[in-house]
Write a structure and sequence with these properties.
The chain is an alpha/beta fold and 321 residues long. The chain has helices spanning 3-15, 18-25, 29-43, 59-87, 100-104, 106-118, 130-139, 201-213, 227-235, 281-295, 308-311; strands at 48-51, 54-57, 94-98, 123-127, 144-148, 160-175, 195-198, 219-223, 241-244, 255-259, 265-273.
Length: 321
Amino acid sequence: MDLTVWRAFVTVCRVGSLSAAAAELNHTQSAVSRQIAGLERQLGVPLVERHARGVRPTPAGEVFRRHALATLNEADRTVRAVRDVCNGVCDRPLAIGATPSLAAGIVPEALRGLLRQAGPVRWSLLPGLSAQLHGRVIAGDLDIAVVTDAPPGLAADPRVDRRFLGLDEMVVVLPAGHSLAGCGPVRIQALADETWVEDNDGSAALLRQHAARAGVSARIDLTAADLPGKLALVATGHAIALIPGVMTCALRADVTTTPLVGPPTRGIYAITPRRDPHPCAVPLLDQLTTAFASVHPAQVDYQPTESNAHDAAPGTSRRHQ
């Protein structure tokens, strides 16, 4: 089968329209229609169905789309690898993924170190949640992702290599004029009457677990769409929030942080695909390690084994395990 036709089918499924796919591929709509029809004849099943706003894959088409996308990604990686060998240099951009807190914290610093060391490198940075980023590494969309083991945790996957960067302590972010600003480590019991805001299930789970261990509950009365929205609600005095320690170097001026006694923690990891790794991935891994150490100079010497990296309860302090 012609991979050009496969690419046309995947594009149609992604944009949901024959005309939009034709425009993106620089083909005519009739040419794209013929390609899809020919593919359906080869496979003997309908692959797309029309609806009011365009087209969508049938159940058989969705199965074919997933496998076709994996094949196309692998074909693209193969072509890039051959070109890299022929050129003696790496021309392909470095695609990086990171959770929002890490994208705002250590990743930019690590990229600066990489560019200083390796010279000009084309790169892109995509924020996302850990599970989403893991999936994009597997799909070949990302060359490296910086993720956490906060709930629901990281699944074992033989298709990726994983490097532990360090253990990040969560801190409480407060409005700049809050009565506990600058008070040093506080116990969660002192915050039992506060209103909390959270922006994702993982952070909320860490907060609830930490409060429950102390015999209190956290009133998560507000929900923010994202991390900037969460910080905006704190800055304007509507709530306080739990945030990663790596964020403290990149906070807005109208909020402050205070550490918790016995804080919840999360492991920070970098994951890379085992097949066709990007040549810049390893030097970036080293820069990420350095950047994390600069944020946590007193980092506890903890190196998870393959078993305890998965078996430890996500978000619990590992310094006592």
